[in-house]
Amino acid sequence: MGSPTVSAKSSIKQAYGRRKEEFARRALELGYRQALKYIWYHTINLGNGLLTPGVYDYRETLSAFHFPEDMHGMRVLDIGSATGFFAFEFERRGAEVTSVELPSLKQLDRFAGQSTDELIVKIQRMQFPRRP
User: Fold this and answer.
1) What's the whole-number mean pLDDT along residues 46-73?
2) Cα separation of 64 and 92, whole Å?
3) What distance in Å separates the CA atoms of residue 5 and residue 2, rounded to the nearest whole number?
4) For a Cys-Cys bond, which of 14, 44, 81, 102 suits 107, CB 3.0-4.6 Å?
5) How far apart are the first and last CA of the chain?
6) Are residues 88 and 111 in the same domain?
7) What's the pLDDT band for 99 if we cut at 50, 70, 90?
């Protein structure tokens, strides 16, 4: 399977833009202005019609991971949980969850020769693309 076509990439970006706009509208309606300052790595249903505009949406493919439906009595360590989709899902299934993440984007791994600033700019462009 090859890379997405230019039109497919454009369609994906447009859909992501719509999700971001809807999230911003609903977050403001609910008085959650603070939620707008975060980068949402995962799509997460926060309730009250508030769906984060994550880059990764595992909701429809979750069954492919074959997690047990009942995780009561289990302890889960979620390392690098980003915005926590899996941590929340494990807790919903009854597990006791410990979730850890880097304190800042400055601690992210990067390719040899890539500066932290270059990586952060790349992530920001993914999250906040320039409009034509």
Assistant:
1) 94
2) 17
3) 9
4) 102
5) 29
6) no
7) very high
Q: By C-alpha distance, which of 53, 58, 16 is closest to 38?
A: 53
> Is residue 102 classed exposed, middle or buried when 0-12, 13-18 and 19+ CB atoms within 10 A define those classes?
exposed
Structure tokens at 99: 């979730």
Q: Which domain holds residue 72?
A: 59-101
- Looking at the structure, tell me whether residues 97 and 122 fall in a common domain: no
Under 8 Å between Cβ of 40 and 83: yes
pLDDT at 132: 53
Tokens at residue 91, please?
Answer: 């807790």
When pLDDT is averaged across residues 74-87 and rounded to a whole number, the result is 94
Per DSSP, the residues of 40-92 read: --B--B-STT-B---SB--TTTGGGG---S--TT-EEEEET-TT-HHHHHHHH
Based on the structure, what is the number of domains in the chain? Answer: 3
Best CA proximity match to 93, nearest among 71, 120, 126:
71
Whether 44 contacts 10, CB under 8 Å: no
Weakest-pLDDT range from 17-26, 79-88, 102-111: 102-111
